């Protein structure tokens, strides 16, 4: 069932949507949803996703429905069993991935849309762990084979209870004992308990453990990783010297077993040290293998992968939420000017709440494909000893993936919430799926870096380049060109808005102005603060975040997203009817995001005084006008993004539009819908000991 | 255990917080948290709440912990049993409520902080139902007595599957049959299924059912309510002719049993008609008792009560979330300029994310107390046949409670989410309670009116007054003075900003300008649209929502909130040290909310050109400066708002500040923390059928 087997006739892979109330709007769309889907993700990906989804729907183990209620232990059992089944089905081989690297995120998205715990458990224990294992330990080949064949189960263990973002200060120790040629692992305090390690709670046999390496002379050489056997694969019990626990219930992702762990003089062989960056001699001398900056570069690359994928997961959640909300809005009717009620999608407020997220679905989808291509280029380059700007590529990918993960995570969060509220009471049903999306998605805004901390990675990168430009006249450019315009910042800061809110180019110019303005302002502010704090960069940066560096990173991201979408829309091969719709979405997205930065454009006088009287109104009226123009496209636009009903699994958003039948189905099938609770005699027989009437009460007083 | 028994020495009722890491900041506060608590809620309320909380903590039935995982059926059973126990304990008598009406919301808040399902179930089945029952049916006295003594259990049934906000179009029918002197209830379609009725799912014996009244001549007289016996109180089974189901799992509030219901020629006696507004003669003639406008006035009053209480519930959630986030931030340390890490509350971003919500907790708390006083005045007046402006009072309360419910609901939603993210990974633990707060609170933004629809109630009210001023020179004023300044709109629109961002008075003036500006702009826009649509007010209003009427209602609310806080802070009796802190919070709240309207102030030239260059920066710098000034007060400020640890029930926010001990407690006590899953042989023995190595795979290809 490898990718080659997929039929080339992709159109046939996509079934027509069933007839029903949604036809009203489907007929009005100006484009063919199947062609649009293939345009925005490529035929291979479309075909691959369709194939995977069909397979899942046929697999008995993957049966589910929208109203089911599982206990945490049932979720755990099912997630594990399904993960195992995924290994058997093996949708893609490594070779397919090399031929079309887009199949990797497509696989993650496709399974994730079905169930996030499942794909997170899969990726953490397989792909992520293998990437770590392959590059480092001495017996890595055997281990990788064990992992792939279910003889071992891996996890990564970094975070401690008291240290997350600040990994440098982790407290777990690995002390080398030259006598036995072993490292001794210890958890020195309650606060140093390893926590949040995914897959550790119930299943992992191996963990990549991050600990402070101590040589026998009691000298600390900083954080290193070790491949540690934590459970006996025969019995699945932790080895003596290790305590492992399951972290229990979380807000979401409860199919995933996050674990915590203590070491008590737990001994591991010398070879457990992941030694690509440094090693230790048998008499206990520490030998670094790469320079600190090389190490940083490599680390940045690996960390970026996680963020690139989380960006994609966020976009997938945003898309699913908006599919649900738009379909519901096109079929739900309420009020109207005459006896016939309007579908609520006809209301300005509903359009204004939802359509910017429809636009975001497309604009961010394109951003992801484009960023992923950059990441693949970087990845390929990093294995090429000749080609030279690995470090620069790594730094730019790091900068882009950091802000992308943060802003996409937040946009998806807001889209899910707006969708939940836009679907009213029915959106509050568990069976609508919006609650599950929100709870599972929530983790994306925290793991692999808190969003606000990540934005600092981007602003640090930008400020560094800007500083070198100012101080040393160094040209600002980068391998993927995201920062090149900054080189022209002096001229950009002299420009004024050309007044054309209907032109994406004009908005890109405005965005570049915002980025340059924030760079300049942040630089000025930083200099003042550095003086105030006698050069203490830590304190200076701290007081330069809100409204400065944080806004800078967000605006920089949005600018880049819009630039990439502009490039995409300019491709000659796009049929004109599709281009028209795509352009409208690009414009809507740009206006909707730039609206939040308009104060900067006023304060900086980028909006000249003589036109300032209506700039805000122009932006806002254009947003509303675009929403109105997209109204008849919206259902087809979300059809493009929608997985099959079985995967979307929402009782308020079936593709047949028969919302009330499906809601009633969910209501009447939930567990115990028509059953009397077994405690009903608590009402019928056992009355509470209260005073029997108001008059008796008064008599008593 | 009535209120009189509560000791007058309130200070003694409040225990000191246990010593621990939070002392660092507690010691720095400029005021006494106990005095502040009594100042902002009154001694009676403080004492009452303390008493209730202590009682709950001692009741075995109310035992809970932060890591417990209950199935829905366990939640239902417990909620029911606790509700029954609350009736036995009877914290307050009706007399106490009359003496101090603030005890009513205090009771709701106190129990709600413990568990929202419990208090919602209690209020819906008791207070809300009784209010409905008492005023209307013929045998209401007996029924009320039955309800209070657990012989009957009531619910309200309005919403149908296809109709929520648009109640006028509900489809359930009640046709009078003169032969038998009965009404015949029918559910004419699947879409007309009654849904969301709280307490109906498993428990109600009686329901106030809203249905279209048909006389025997087949004439429809519109929506009326009927007291319907739905279950036999002896067996708890639905009567023949009624199908009742439980709606199953929801996003939150799963202790509450929402139900759905079908009628199939279900006959109820003639006397079931709730006949205070209209009645029917025995030969089937319809007799209205009140005019339509009288009916509207009375209805508005009843509906307002729900919104007033939801406003309070939202504020309570906002407060609990911010208590958790501030305590966590004051004890969690990460990074730092030297070897000692900083508590994350020291970071500008963290302050900027959280402290505006600390301010909102106080400003909105005061708003609620003030609005509630207005509501009580209205309520008392409505029973007074002489005093004349009931209608005006009702309309103003309706306007205020509508926007209050919407904006407070959203602010609480955002506060909970920001708190969740600000607490990082640990905030994602179920035991942190933020997930539960979010899921339970979510309903507040939908039930008793979708927020966006509610805002239209406020804008309609304002626009009507404004129109009468413009067209008929009618003075704008209202019983509770919330709109009085609008009368002076012409002069207000001529004013300019005085530039003082540190003065709450200046900000109130700016807010009043914003409200008047939006009124004027909306009126102009409406006139254009009315012309465009030939006087069709429905379409005109629809296209005047985003940026106009919606913004108007929000700004009007915020202005009113700030005015009321300003009045409160000016009270002579407030000690100066407390006034200083309160003033800072008022200012922070005002700047933080007005920032979102600054574009209006630019576009309208309220900010004169010569100062516009730094208005945005001034506002923002002042926000940051106030955050920084409040940093050492924040822990004490949330101590004022915090329920006891047992009620707050968050493993990351105990009042002793020992976060890691409590987190570890939650981790190690959750169900199955150290247990092997019973499916572990799925890994150790039953291997998946996959190819055993990459080389074999290649050989096969």
From TrEMBL, chains A, B:
It holds the Pfam family Acyl-CoA_dh_M. GO terms for cellular component: peroxisome. Pathway: Lipid metabolism. The active site is at residue 448. GO terms for biological process: fatty acid beta-oxidation using acyl-CoA oxidase; lipid homeostasis. SUPFAM superfamilies: Acyl-CoA dehydrogenase C-terminal domain-like, Acyl-CoA dehydrogenase NM domain-like. FAD binds at residues 159, 198. This is Acyl-coenzyme A oxidase. It comes from Leptotrombidium deliense.
